[in-house]
Amino acid sequence: MAEQNNAANSQGTRAPAALITGASRGIGKALAIGLAGLGYDIALADLDSCQTGLRDVEQQITAKGQTGRAYTVDVSRKSQVVAMIERASADFGQIDLLVNNAGILKRALLEDLDEHDWDQHFDVNVKGVFLMCQAITPYMKKRRAGRIVNVASIAARGGAVEQGHYASTKGAVVSLTRVLAKELGPFGITVNAICPGIILTEMGRNNLGDDAAVRHWETTTALRRLGQPEDLVGAVYFFASPHADFITGQALNVDGGIRFN
Ligand code: NAD
Question: Whose CA is nearest to atom 32 of ligand 1?
Fold first, then answer.
């Protein structure tokens, strides 16, 4: 993956710019640092409470010789999303790649689930993706170019106990990805999704619970290990690259071999 990516480079010296939500930790942070290592400048977006983490990621990106810039956003708030995308687009010249990574998971059996928690999962995991895509569409359509990668989950493939709300949101993200691919394809914009398996982040560890669950998933995974956040970089980079020019509306499992559909 040493090859430097993006059409923008063929026109001059501007590095391609990626905007990543939920970039202060976990998968978003690994994607930001990984894509910076592959030649991207990165707009880092996260909640106000995560700005210290974002500054740390910003510094790691600068150390790689790329530009990193932190933005505050709650992806479930339209006014914040619109303002943040406007600022990031002006700061970077343009956003070539949008990665909708921000997400939440609080486990609960459906019979015990609060209505508030159901709504909150849909607000962040689905409405957040919708609002981000809606806000960036005019910019990408104007250029007749752009890449969007949505972070779904293998929970969308097979469901999971205590994740009825979460799995439903990720199923919706896969559906949204397909619809957007059809709506934006005529404008040269591709929209794909990745479905991570069990990744050792704060969310992944909370989700796993005890050591027995870790061992269960290690032996259930074909490659016999759980994922690291860095394992997601290659798939996103591929979808953003010219090698994926003819691929849109797809959802790719990145799970070490748990789900085969
Ligand atoms: P994480 O909890 O470590 O990080 C989630 C990030 O999203 C945090 O930085 C958080 O501040 C941010 N975020 C939450 N609500 C937000 C909001 N309203 N606005 C802006 N940012 C917000 O989780 P992670 O494991 O890094 O997960 C990243 C993505 O990958 C999520 O969409 C998650 O559903 C998905 N995923 C994770 C796993 C896993 O095993 N870790 C598996 C499949 C899918």
Answer: 103
Q: Which listed residue (40, 71, 166, 237) is catalytic?
A: 166
Q: Check whether 93 has a pLDDT greater than 50.
A: yes
Query: Is residue 89 domain-resident?
Result: yes
Query: Ligand 1 centroid to 24 CA: how many Å?
Result: 10
Taking the CA of residue 74 as reference, the ligand 1 atom at the shortest distance is 19
Q: Is 151 in the pocket of ligand 1 (CB under 6 A)?
A: yes
CATH of the domain at 124: 3.40.50.720
40 is catalytic: no
In three-state secondary structure terms, 114 is coil
Name every residue whose Cβ is closer than 8 Å to that of residue 89 and which is 6 or more positions away in sequence: 95, 136, 139
How far apart, in Å, do the first and last CA atoms of the chain sit?
26
| pTM score, whole prediction | 0.96
The helix (H) or strand (E) run that includes residue 99 is strand 97-100
What residues make up the domain containing 131?
2-200+229-253
Nearest-angstrom CA–CA distance, 109 and 152: 20
For the record, the structure tokens of 65 come out as 């010789």
Q: How far is the CA of 195 from the centre of ligand 1 (A)?
A: 13
156 lines ligand 1 (CB under 6 A): no
What's the whole-number average pLDDT of the chain?
95
Domain count, the chain: 1
Instruction: Give per-residue pLDDT as tens, 54-83.
Output: 999 999 999 999 999 999 999 999 999 999
